[in-house]
Specification:
This protein is of the alpha+beta class. It has 2 domains: about 50 residues, no CATH class; about 150 residues, no CATH class. The protein is about 55% helix and about 15% strand. The protein is built from 6 helices and 9 strands, in the order E-H-E-E-E-E-H-E-E-H-E-E-H-H-H. A hairpin with a 5-residue loop joins strand 8 and strand 9. The protein starts with a strand and ends with a helix. The relative contact order is 0.10.
Length: about 200
């Protein structure tokens, strides 16, 4: 239910009304010739009076889904570039699965193919642990494939899992409760989807 004051009113009354309802509580202020209204989030102004927006819940759900999908996309990019998505080498050290590292490994691999490097050459690489390791051609190729696999798991498994979880939500509150965390094991993300679906079935 919207709030209102009747005109004419003093400047002080108007200012107090706006501060209370708009500045402090986020209600939308609408003025007519005879009234100043403060609309609730689920209200719109039609035919010179406040009324309930029957599409409010669906509009909020659509908006929440879009924002959460954007968050999932941005979080995936950030996670991969943060250096926390790792491929483990045989010696226990790690290579960060960043686009930059894939580009560097790919350039070295191309060097072996084109003859810039011979099979006897070693490639020296600084790991996540700040240790310098030597890689043979086969080890470098394996590392390149492994780092690519780490990225593929994010974009081809975890990211779609979050999108499916978002799409399964029935309310904006459900969407907003989803925590995007790419460090989480993918089976936990899938379990969250299953749990949501079970709740939905119980509600039918």
């Amino acid at each position: 239910m919207s709030y209102y004051i009747i005109k004419p009113c003093s400047k002080e009354q108007r200012a107090d009304f706006v501060v209370l309802h708009n500045h402090q509580n986020g209600r939308k202020i609408v003025e007519t010739e005879n009234f100043i209204y403060a609309l609730e989030a689920n209200e719109i102004f039609e035919n010179d009076e406040p009324t309930i927006n029957e599409n409010y819940e669906s509009e909020q759900l659509t908006l929440a889904k879009k924002q959460k999908c954007d968050e999932a996309n941005n979080a995936a990019r950030y996670y991969l570039e943060s250096g926390n998505a790792l491929y483990q080498l045989e010696d226990g050290n790690h290579i960060e699965a960043t686009d930059g590292n894939i580009g560097k490994l790919g350039a070295y691999a191309l060097g072996f193919i084109t003859g810039t490097y011979s099979q006897e050459n070693l490639i020296y690489w600084n790991t996540k642990e700040d240790k310098t390791v030597s890689l043979t051609q086969s080890q470098l190729t394996k590392a390149l494939l492994g780092v690519g696999k780490v990225q593929a798991e994010i974009w081809n498994v975890k990211y779609p899992a979050y999108l499916a979880q978002i799409e399964a939500c029935k309310t904006a509150d459900e969407v907003n409760s989803i925590i995007i965390d790419y460090a989480m094991e993918v089976n936990n993300a899938q379990e969250n989807i299953t749990n949501n679906n079970e709740v939905d079935k119980n509600d039918i």
